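Recall that a protein's primary structure is simply its ordered list of amino acids. Everything else, from secondary elements to tertiary packing, is in principle encoded there. The following example makes that idea concrete.
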Amino acid sequence: MTNTGYVPGSATGQVSPEPPVSAATAAAWRRRLRQTKVAAISPDDEKRANGFQVIADMAYNHAVQDKTHPLIPRTLGDPPEIPRAALELHGSDGTTACVPRMDTADQTDGLRVLFSLATPQSEETHRPEITVNKGDHDDSYSYSRRAFDRRRGINGGHRRARGGDPVLLEAGQGPRGALSDSYDIPRVEFRRRFVAAWVSFAALASSAGLVRHVVLAMQQPVQRPIQILWSFGFAWMGLQWMLSWLDKPHQVTPRAQRRLDGMQVTVVIPLYNEDPGVVDRVLYALSRQTRLPDRIEVVDDGSTIDYTAVHRHWQVTGPELSWRRQANAGKKHAQALAFRANAEADIFVTIDSDTALEDHALEEGLKPFADPRVQSVAGIEIAANPQANWLTRTASTRSLFFQVTACGVQSAFGEILVNRGAFALYRAGLLRDIVDAYTAETFLGMPVMLGDDAALTLFARGRGRTVQQSSAFAFTMYPETLSHHFRQWIRWMRATLIRDCWRLRYLPLTSYGWWYTVINTITFLALTATPLLIAAQWPASEHFAAAGILTMFGWASVTSLRLLCVRRSDESWLQRIATVAYYPAALLWGVFVLRPLRFYGIATWRRQGWVTREQVEVSIRSEG
């Protein structure tokens, strides 16, 4: 709808005189705009979305019944148009919405008729109250309001159906998958209860343990080096556990939620030799989101697997999909292709090709962006196949504990160091600014292909805050064989060496992230040296070794109760207790198996190959 003088219902398109608009009328029109939440719209959708042209048509059809009405010319095909010049108002986000502007003090009867007809008359156009959800989603924008916006054809940042029709999906519902009618994607909740009691108990236990080590160090000079190293590591882990309770899910007001709904969200999925069933489930999960993405970008990085069935199905089903293919160049270049191709995006969501988002993941993950300082948001990664075998259960328990403790503390300080590649959100402007540096990164003259998630996080930290949203969950496939598990861990450790060097160089000395990197490195070396000192002083250190293992088990058993904050709908109380019971074993696995592999990863950092996914290694059948 451009201001060419064309009048609705006119066959000639002649210019008609502009009716005057009073201050009272303009104020009423502004109130109506706020009530109906008119969002930024494209020219093609303008007539459908803004509602004013439709109202004008309604006014004309009603007024022509009275040929003597002062607003209707004697030629019935030429009613006047609402002036476009009087309808411009620039929002806080730089977009233009339709709202009248004061031009004159006069008021015409025709505009009174227009406003009387603009009053909603049916349930389909009735504006419901903005409800505030209680419980775990306080102050969130209710689904009933979003459904109302979609019924009116107002975009609000949500995807529009092909052809311009609004989308209306109930929460957690979506189309069928390509290879299966449906997939079981559990609900997950994050609950913080009895915080003061847990922190007090842990503080007492940590203090008692620390005092004991200090006393033993004074009484037994021979074991003093061991006691000092052990006490340092123990104190650092205890401090992180207590501070992790500062982390809690970000909440927003209804007004902030409406701003978030107006953001253009693009999901980027780099794909390489993934099981087609797993990819189908990823897209199925995106179609069930309570906040649908506006666009999905799948970039096939030269896979040797045929995804034709999945591609064709989702090309015409669910959110708007772009499926690109390139010669194998690595995950970074696959992501960069999507970053450069989406200039209209406000938020990029990066997920792995084996990651199925929980139904509320996008809605929850966007909430921290209500704070303009936040540049990236990390979601919580959960195993989709924890029951496959002991390895997936152990690895998933260890990973979840790290996220809710160490990463929880980092988030409380606004300094998340690694957004899990499985699920992370970034401001799109940031990624478009750094994409060239991202793909051209080198370390000591070697091109860097690994550690893409940590690199993006470091770029985000350089511009603002990086946080974690502990109520945004994603299910990813964990390795089910030792070979796959070890290769993945070594790849991560190769990237960790490079990222630690970059953090020490670029993060401010006063930042928590810089000190975390330093202290964590010292703790790693100290706990690595402890077994060596025990072996060197054997058998004098026999008593300490036994006491140390018992202390480790006891401390792990207490701190693992933090895992009970995360509740999955597909787990019984018995399975949740089993998860907690697995953590001491997971801790020992990390100390005695994965820690030595870290040294191997450091020594072989120049091998920047992916080392996994040369073929399908984990299939969706594993979940059973």
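Residues 160 and 166 are 5 Å apart (CA to CA). The longest helix spans residues 573-603.
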